[in-house]
Amino acid sequence: MQIVIFGATGILGIQLVKQALYNGHQVRAFGRNVFTADLPKNDQLELVQGALFDQEQVYEAITGADAVITSIGGDSKGADLTRSLGMKNIIAQMQKAHIKRIVAVGERSILHANKDRLIMDLPDFPAKFLPISREHLKAYQYLNASMLDWTMVCPPDIIDSDPTGNFITSSDFAPNPDSNKIIAADLALFILKEVNKNEYLQHRVGICNE
Hints:
This protein has helices at 11-22, 55-62, 82-97, 130-145, 184-197, and strands spanning 2-6, 26-31, 45-49, 67-70, 101-105, 149-154, 157-159, 167-171, 181-183, 203-209. It is α/β, with parallel strands linked by helices and 210 residues long.
């Protein structure tokens, strides 16, 4: 399988690249800093330096791919719109290139807390995190309105540590019990499995370590 990974130079992105290569996939790693990041040297890895908002560069990067994974970062205050507008551009170029499968990374706060509210809508949700949550929510809304075969994984705090293989998932809600943490390597493991298995098509996914 040929997989394009956006956000390939972050903690999670590097894990996605390494594990995808280990599993025998062909990988295109897209980003501004791919040539200076700590990515492995591998004949199956193609580094594509580009800008997320550039339509032509994104289109060229995804042409011929079987699936897309997005692990898009952005401003810590959620003010730069990278997550939402980057997703909007990726979706548009996937539709143009007739590529259907995408697994995107969002955030725990856009999962349901109950049937009426998202976690970010709860009264005790910290106001300082709302701008980033709104950005992730907008990215989800773009996905949900598309005709793509999408899954959005919505993790809690991501920890840079060795994989354990011990994690639980839940459709549209946070898992119960919820440890409110996930190891990056375990998150990457689940994402790559979901690309193949399609167990959560058109759903957000809650995940945490047990």
